[in-house]
Each structure stands twice: as C-alpha cells, then as structure tokens.
Design a protein that fits this description.
Rossmann fold; 17% strand; 41% helix; 333 residues; 11 helices; alpha/beta; 7-stranded parallel sheet
Length: 333
C-alpha cells in the first residue's frame, strides 16, 4: 500500500503530532481529504487550507462515521493526553479515549477503509521492567504480562487489542506504533500538558530571562528516557502505515539520557548553570524507559536518527521565539 494512492483522514490533526503529519503528507503529494480534531480549528497547533478541517468529538460514533466517510486510510492520533503531570492526575480522562479508538474502528470497518493506523505509547510496557534507570531497552514483547501505566497506558494497551481483533474478525488492516516521548517545535510547552523536553527548555529560558538561576526538576533527575524528534515520528508513522507489519512496533529513539543530562543540554544552549531543586513529590513516571529498535530495523531498515542535541536545539529556539512573542504582545496590550 502506498499512501499516494489512498484517500487519507487524519484524526487528532489539531494536535502536535497530527498537525505535523498532515503537513508532511501534503508535502509528499498524499491526498489528505480530511483533518479532524475536537478543538476549534483556530486552536489547532497547525492547520492546512488544502484539506477539509473538521471540528468533531470523536468519542461519538456518529462523528467518527462522518470523519471517515470517503476515506481509504485513517490515522488515529486523537486522545486526551499530555506529559507525566497530566497523565498521573487525569487517569479517568485518559481512559475515556478508548471511546475514540473503539468508535473509529467501528466506523472504519463499516466504511470499508483499507487500512487503519493507531498511535499507541511506550506507556503500555510492564512497569516491573522499568524500575532501574539503567533500563534494558524495551522490546515489543515486554508489554506482557500486562502492567501498563495506570490510566493512559491501559487505555492504549486495550486499544491495541481492539485493533488486533478488528483485523482478525473483520479484516480491517491495522498498524500500531508505540510512540516514545515525541517532542519538537509547534508543540505544547506550557500549561500542564507539556512533556519533559519542552518543560525543561521553558524552565531554563525562564530562569535565564528572569535572572533567577534556579530550576525545579521533578524527581531526582536520574530517571532515564529516550526522546524522539517530531520529524522522525512523522516519517516512521508513514513507513509503518505503508508496511506489512501487523503487530505493535516501537517507534522511538534509542538514545538514552537522564533528565539531568536533558537539563545539561538546555543549559548549554542558554550558556548558564542553574541551581537544581529536586521535587521528589512531583510526578516522575517510571525510573527508566528506552526503545529497543531491533524490530523496526529488521522490518523497515530504518530507525529514528535525529540526535537529542540537534532536535532539542530546534525546540529550544522555537520556545524562545514564543516567549519573546508573548512579551511583545503584552507590551502592545
């Protein structure tokens, strides 16, 4: 299957990843017929005039049926989600996203969609395998026996199973990518839903601009993660959608860093050294998580390759521009 031969709908298109995906597909000559999100279009991170932009609540089955009408391929990136602070404090809200994927699968099967992509998460992985910061990279099989992140992770794992059974029972071709910490420009960087790379960049910039050279870090800073730049995420998502990979597959960088090292990089960009205040009571997630890319290398001959330093530089500069623009806007007002 080549997406240039398909009629594509992107659900969750008003979000960070969805907005980038629509732009990339259009740039590549793919016929994206519709972009759908629950937010009003003027609140989308990005929107494209070349497609039909639809505001709809995809928790509703009828909305899903209208969303996929005329489509032959559907990307489902729609979910209530955010960084660890949001996930840990909104478990029920995160789990309600199961309605989105369930109803989209029902609608896609009824509309005879040829292929369905579900954006899952590394939060599906068994917590017992993530207790040590020196974590062994997580293989796809490590999601079982199931002990997913409470709330958000369980919703993703259940929705993976729904995709599997819709393929088995109804023949709807499903592709499932387990995203590992996606970041980059044009994403959330303040307000509570931002993830660690954006939050750290913002905090370093705030400390630098204010002259108060201190930073709060959630946890002890020794927890480890890998972070995938948005361009790699979008490219990998398309490659997985076009592949014959039927099982869930990791889509993430294998470059493991501590949160302290993430702060080091942002401090280097700013040319400062900050006093680090560790908030041990704040949400911190698992102690260690990294992506084993053996399967994606074997099946696609590819893996995410943007270095954290390179991707974070672009993210840091973009957030800096947003903060400067806010200052200018406040002065005008």
């Amino acid at each position: 299957m080549r997406l240039r031969d398909e009629k594509v709908v992107v659900c969750g298109a008003g979000g960070f990843i969805g907005g980038h995906l629509v732009k990339r597909l259009l740039d590549d000559g793919v016929d994206v017929i519709r972009a759908v999100d629950v937010k009003p279009v003027h609140e989308w991170y990005q929107s494209s005039e070349e497609v039909e932009n639809v505001e709809a609540d995809l928790k509703n089955l009828r909305s899903c049926e209208r969303a996929v009408e005329g489509a032959t391929a559907v990307f489902n990136l729609a979910a209530d989600m955010g960084g660890m602070g949001f996930i840990e404090n909104n478990k029920a809200l995160c789990m309600l996203s199961v309605l989105i994927n369930t109803h989209l699968l029902m609608a896609a099967e009824r509309a005879k969609v040829s292929r369905f992509f579900f954006s899952s998460s590394a939060c599906v992985y068994n917590a017992d395998k993530q207790r040590d910061p020196r974590v062994i990279p997580l293989k796809e099989a490590d999601a079982y026996p199931a002990q997913a992140e409470d709330g958000y992770g369980w919703e993703k794992l259940f929705s993976e199973r729904m995709c599997r059974h819709y393929e088995e029972d109804f023949g709807l071709q499903c592709r499932v990518a387990r995203y590992h910490n996606v970041y980059g420009p044009l994403g959330t960087w303040t307000g509570g839903r931002e993830k660690a790379p954006a939050a750290i960049c913002r905090k370093v910039l705030e400390a630098t601009l204010s002259g108060n050279h201190e930073i709060e870090i959630w946890g002890d800073g020794n927890q480890t993660r890998s972070f995938m730049y948005i361009d790699d995420c979008v490219q990998g998502s398309r490659m997985i959608m076009e592949s014959d990979i039927h099982e869930p597959i990791n889509l993430g960088s294998s470059e493991l860093v501590t949160i302290n090292q993430l702060v080091d990089i942002a401090e280097h960009f700013a040319g400062v050294r900050l006093v680090r205040n560790y908030n041990l009571a704040a949400p911190r997630g698992v102690n260690g998580r990294n992506s084993d890319n053996t399967l994606i290398q074997a099946r696609l001959g590819w893996e995410p390759s943007t270095t954290l330093r390179s991707g974070l530089r672009k993210t840091y500069d973009w957030i800096h521009e947003q903060m400067e623009q806010e200052v200018l806007t406040a002065r005008v007002a």
